[in-house]
Prior knowledge:
Elements: H1 12-26, E1 34-35, H2 37-43, H3 48-60, E2 64-67, E3 71-74, H4 79-102, H5 108-123, H6 127-144, H7 148-155, H8 159-170, H9 174-179, H10 182-190, H11 193-205
Helix pairs in contact: 1-3, 2-3, 4-6, 4-10, 4-11, 5-6, 5-10, 6-8, 10-11
Amino acid sequence: MSSANPLSRVSLSQQIRDQLLDRIIRGELPPGNRLVEMKIAAEFSTSQAPVREALRELETMGVIETLPNKGARVRTITNEELRQLYEVRAQLESYATQLATAAGAPLKSRLKEAIKAMKRAARESDSTAFASHNSAFHRIIVEASGNKILLDMWETLNVQTRTMTNVARSRRNLMELADSHQTLIDAIASGDPDMANRVAKDHVLSNRPKSADTSIKQSAS
Length: 221
């Protein structure tokens, strides 16, 4: 395991989680790799408590699994799993965009700021930051739908983590991917809920993995 970056004393579990997640997405911790609490705690010079919390969060995010008598290890995330997730996302987000458009929600400026943030990350070739801003863009739309149940369902998909994985595998041009979000803003600004629904669905589905049998084996809408 590579050496850890320095940690502050604030939210240790979150910082450990984020560093482990970055290594998993980049392939430094490949599928099947065991994650031993004691070793991780020693690496980060901390107790096992924040490590245990970080591993619980990573398990909730679906990137690691805990097996009886074997402990935690990195999960294999197949392209078929990603494809199915994107198909569910397409249904949820198209409906959310339809609702947000019908409500006339003032989204344009917030969404444009999210695209600007994506482009900054793209210029820096920072796929992790890009995935975070990408997820924020879509969350803004889902929140604007005004449907809390819809938002709760969307959050269970762990969109940011799955976007990080998919972007890494597809090796998409991040600037082009950022630009592709403008069509969603235009659709919402049109005030046509049905068109917005179609545009949002097409946007998500167009980013599905192309093949269905490849697992995560390389570094990382």
